[in-house]
Write a sequence for this structure.
């Protein structure tokens, strides 16, 4: 296997060296692509040093040298990648030695276009740990509840399987064929500054044939620290609801131009409407809510069902 590992870099000078070196230790990694996104710290200098030190490390910035967010950075990384497979890594996370242990065997099946695995958690600061436990309170191992593949993965991520599949797995633990991304034309939504990874994964599960890999133990570690923006937002606060609305609205717009089954379309539509209502206030909110309930009472079951479990630093 020849794998291109894409790392968007923003405000991560303290962590990026460990992330890069964790990828370089793996023989399957053909190249590590750093997309520096106008960091306010010294990350660009660290990235330059890494690119000079290691032949497999390639450093890029956006053409205008500006800040465009993780979605745009990952899209640029995909454009620059030359490997047959794509993997992603956040700049404050790192791979474990077993990261690609099952990929070689599972990708022997030509219908498999992506493999997802489990990741663990490391608390890098006391403040980050406190915010994480109070606002996210996720388990150490971020994984799904049982192995699945194909259309069941998409249904599971939307919570539409008889047995609870789990609502998320992270980019750090995803490996996908470069040809599958090219075939589907799928890109990260650059308008989403957060949750664009969740958005991408759900869409990927629809367009491509994904299969569970190592889901009972970690193949990578996510770092929790003071600068994780997502851990600072309390669930169901106005800011949380606004971000969730933007996420579900992105999926809603996508669902309208793709041939999803009616149950999936309805679920996405209801989630979008629920969070749209949650950001309204006063009489406008009450009026819109009553109209929505009259149209479909199932909306009362949706608002608090979806929980977000990943983190990002930009």
């Amino acid at each position: 296997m020849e794998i291109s590992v894409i790392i968007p870099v923003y405000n991560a000078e303290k962590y990026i060296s460990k992330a890069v070196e964790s990828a370089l230790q793996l023989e399957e990694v053909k190249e590590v692509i750093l997309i520096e996104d106008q960091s306010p710290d010294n990350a660009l200098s660290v990235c330059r040093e890494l690119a000079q030190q290691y032949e497999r490390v390639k450093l890029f910035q956006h053409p205008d040298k500006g800040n465009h967010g993780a979605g745009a950075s990952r899209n640029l990384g995909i454009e620059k990648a030359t490997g047959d497979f794509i993997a992603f890594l956040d700049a404050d996370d790192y791979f474990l030695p077993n990261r690609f242990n099952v990929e070689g065997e599972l990708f022997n099946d030509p219908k498999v276009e992506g493999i997802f695995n489990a990741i663990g958690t490391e608390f890098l600061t006391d403040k980050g740990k406190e915010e994480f436990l109070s606002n996210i309170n996720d388990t150490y191992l971020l994984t799904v509840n049982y192995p699945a593949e194909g259309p069941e993965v998409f249904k599971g991520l939307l919570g539409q399987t008889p047995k609870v599949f789990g609502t998320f797995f992270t980019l750090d633990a995803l490996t996908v064929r470069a040809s599958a991304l090219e075939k589907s034309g799928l890109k990260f939504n650059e308008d989403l500054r957060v949750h664009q990874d969740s958005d991408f994964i759900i869409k990927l599960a629809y367009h491509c044939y994904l299969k569970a890999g190592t889901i009972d133990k970690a193949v990578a570690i996510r770092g929790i620290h003071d600068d994780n923006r997502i851990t600072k937002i309390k669930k169901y606060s106005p800011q949380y609801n606004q971000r969730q609305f933007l996420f579900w609205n992105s999926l809603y717009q996508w669902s309208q131009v793709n041939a999803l089954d009616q149950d999936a379309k309805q679920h996405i539509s209801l989630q979008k409407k629920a969070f749209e209502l949650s950001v309204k206030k006063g009489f406008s909110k009450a009026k819109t809510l009553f109209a929505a309930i009259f149209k479909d009472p199932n909306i009362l079951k949706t608002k608090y069902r979806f929980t977000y479990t990943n983190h990002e630093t930009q």
